[in-house]
Amino acid sequence: MADIFELFKKISSENTVSREPISHIVVGLGNPGAQYLHTRHNAGFLAIDYICNKYNARVNKSAHKGLVGEATIGGKRVLLVKPQTFMNLSGECVRAVLDFYKISPDNLIIIYDDISLDVGRLRVRRDGSAGGHNGIKSILEHLGTKTFPRIKIGVGQKPHPDYDLASWVLSEFKDDELKALESTFPTVCEGLEKILSASIDDAMQICNKKQ
After folding, report:
1. How far is CA 84 from CA 30, 50, 68, 159, in A?
2. DSSP state at residue 50
3. Residue of 169, 164, 210, 161 lying closest to 187 (CA atoms)
4. Is 100 exposed, middle or buried (0-12, 13-18, 19+ CB in 10 A)?
5. For 131-190, what is each residue's pLDDT tens digit?
6. Rounded distance between C-alpha atoms, residue 188 and residue 195, angstroms
7. Cross-strand partners of 152
8. Residues 24, 38, 41, 64: which is the catalytic one?
9. Rounded CA separation 83/194 (Å)
10. d(CA 196, CA 35)
11. Cα torsion through 166, 167, 169, 174, rounded to 10
């Protein structure tokens, strides 16, 4: 009988969370289309897919120039977003979502690829410049601020300095690289939960250490 009461208590708690307004926006950056699925620039999309699987969510509703879906993560009601504008125009979707839900950039979390980090490395930052990333550059332009948390996922550096950057970020991961990338996603979720609980220092300790 005690187990039944505990089950009802859990269900009641989950329903209470679901009635709370959306408090945070979590955006994974990438390019729409099956041809880009496993490319380096789509690390953010792949992370969102993992998050959906872990927290029993679906990002399948078309809205605000993106695909969106709700999830409860760490007791917070969160909107997950995959912009469908292509990477260079990601800011259009992010701005539209923030405006619709009246969410401050402080409660925006961007997950995206970083070529300065080896595959399998993560980096959490409170704020910062675009660092040459066109998706972040677009978001900075549309929001007018660089102050929002981000989780950067390493996708590896160019083979040599003269290698074309666009060709590199649109190249597909090798099998061993994809496994290394996917192995970071549980840690991404740990870091995300810490950021959502306003413990970004803890998120840095979890994610920024050498994997």
Report:
1. 8, 18, 10, 29
2. H
3. 210
4. middle
5. 999 999 999 999 999 999 999 999 999 999 899 999 999 999 999 999 999 999 999 999
6. 10
7. 112, 123
8. 41
9. 24
10. 32
11. 180
* 64 carries an active-site annotation: no
Can you give the length of the chain in residues? 211
DSSP state of 61: E
Q: Which of the residues in the chain have pLDDT under 70?
A: 1-19, 210-211
Question: Tokens representing 71?
Answer: 């999830």
pTM of the shown model: 0.90
Q: At what angle do helices 134-143 and 90-101 cross, to 10 degrees?
A: 40
Residue 211: closest CA among 166, 180, 177: 180
For CA atoms 50, 53, 54, 60, give the dihedral sign: positive
